[in-house]
């Protein structure tokens, strides 16, 4: 008899060895180097537990996948019910009811736009790829515009509009695309005037660094795109589903995108699923006739389990007022942590929208701290932010992440279920880490120099960001 629970229990402590042997040896070394080689036993809501029964506050939430919290009972029960019903999923020559209902509910959330159709896929990158294809079909153009510091996925098309060079390097020639600086309307208008670009793709709140404009840049960009026939594509894979205090982050700027991509937390973290919301006019250009009705598709698209989880997740967001909670708790993070900018010279800015919160650091003025700053940055430009992530994890049992390659920013991406006590837990821990960080020499800097020696010696860089 097959017993998955026994299989997990018998092999629970072997995860790192299995990763190193069969999956990704370099990543296994990273986890070991930075002390993240825990054996995790369970997760619930905003928390994780290791094999010592220590509880951790999860402010990473699977790169934003667990919007409604880990193992939410409503989503889990919906999946159990769907399994027990022996649903005839993935017939393919059919019109599944659950995916139709999910599409209807998603389009209700996009009622402020002209989106009237939904295409389902499996991941954020796959949704971006689909949006790019749809844009090409609609406009008859091949090229794309994107913003510096953006992240849209790692498949070849998505990689072409990825603003992080470290992800792009080593994979040969990519699609024709041009990067622009956020806020530079003159450069955008100059590019659009060439009539070469099928779409301008952007994250309303960028995952790499939690960047967003504080003016009407997005609105002006939308107007320019409309004037020049370029589709305006909002990538809401990370920022959507209520994370920023609104269902879609682009609502903060009263935008009406032509296409919207969503994924990550759409299924509550249980089943891979993504979606592209688009106008019927754009949709009809691709699916233009019966013989082209499946000209773009995906094998696991519209599967019943993903749709059931998606419907349950949307219900939880509303029933538990999680979008409003994201707004309140995000503001509490800012209220508690922004005053620290005046206290700690290396903390330059605390910014965010809802529960996407970024902490940016900069070079200190005091001589002793500047020595430490330069030593660490000379060894590895990506190392400094890890000096904050590490003690938050090892000393305070809080899981966070470096926000991007080569930048001095950490990012919080909590579950939308995070509460006031959790926010205060983080604020106390962050203050403690800042106090220690502003002592040079000191224990945090000792760890940094050890990691720097590892980086110089050719070991894997101690950061992982998505």
What would the keywords be for this entry?
single chain; 466 residues; alpha/beta; Aspartate Aminotransferase, domain 2; 7-stranded mixed beta sheet; 15 strands
So, CATH architecture of the largest domain? Answer: 3-Layer(aba) Sandwich
Gross morphology: globular
**Mean of pLDDT:** 95
Distance between the termini: 39 Å
CATH superfamily of the largest domain: Type I PLP-dependent aspartate aminotransferase-like (Major domain)
Proportion of helical residues: 40-55%
Topology, number of strands: 15
Specify the structural class.
alpha/beta
Count of alpha/pi helices: 18
Q: What ranges have pLDDT less than 50 throughout 5 or more consecutive residues?
A: 458-462
Tally the structural domains. Answer: 2
Can you give a write-up of this model?
Helix content is 41%, strand content 15%. The protein contains 18 helices and 15 strands. It has 2 domains: 14-68 and 322-456, Aspartate Aminotransferase, domain 1; 74-319, Aspartate Aminotransferase, domain 2 (3-Layer(aba) Sandwich), CATH 3.40.640.10. The protein has helices at 4-11, 15-23, 25-33, 61-64, 73-84, 97-109, 124-139, 156-160, 165-168, 185-192, 217-228, 280-286, 304-319, 322-337, 367-379, 386-394, 420-437, 443-456; strands at residues 40-44, 47-50, 55-58, 115-121, 143-147, 177-180, 197-202, 231-235, 259-262, 274-279, 347-353, 356-361, 398-399, 401-402, 409-412. The protein has 466 residues and is of the alpha/beta class. It has a 7-stranded mixed β-sheet, sandwiched between helices. It has a 4-stranded mixed β-sheet with strand order 1-2-3-13. It has a 4-stranded antiparallel β-sheet with strand order 11-12-15-14, with helices on one face. Helix 16 (386-394) packs across helix 17 (420-437).
